[in-house]
Design goal:
With 119 residues, the chain is mainly α. It has 2 domains: 10-82, no CATH class; 85-119, no CATH class. The protein has 5 helices and 2 strands. The protein has helices spanning 10-23, 27-44, 49-56, 67-82, 88-98, and strands spanning 102-104, 110-112. It has a two-stranded antiparallel ribbon. The protein is extended and about 55 Å long.
């Protein structure tokens, strides 16, 4: 269930908005992401936030993480892979509109989309 939360710290919200844009998240998604990392760090007592952040940014291999850190990384990785990337929605909308999109029917045969006006 979605709930509204007010933040008195404008700088925090501005930082979250900037990070959200870089990470292709909504503002709420970015704050939720930061909250999950913070919660995991507080619960673990043995988590290195800097290392975890570097792995999430692709700067280090996941082998640099301990088991608790890997669990946080896996959760974030799964969430990120479930989100459309930058420009992905627009790309597929254009592809569908152009009629160049293809897919598989229930029997596994390739089917081509018919060109249609933009949605």
């Amino acid at each position: 269930m979605a709930r509204s939360v007010k933040f008195a710290d404008d700088a925090f919200v501005d930082d979250a908005r900037a990070a959200a844009e870089i990470q292709s998240r909504s503002l709420a998604g970015q704050i939720t992401h930061w909250a999950r990392i913070g919660r995991a760090i507080e619960r673990s007592g043995g988590m290195d936030h800097v290392t975890l952040s570097r792995v999430l940014a692709g700067e280090l291999e996941t082998t640099a993480l301990n088991a608790e850190e890997r669990a946080v990384w896996a959760d974030r990785f799964l969430a990120k892979m479930s989100e459309p990337g930058i420009g992905e929605e627009a790309f597929f909308a254009e592809l569908r509109a152009s009629g160049r999109a293809v897919g598989l029917d229930p029997s596994g045969r390739i089917v081509y989309a018919e060109a249609r006006p933009e949605e």
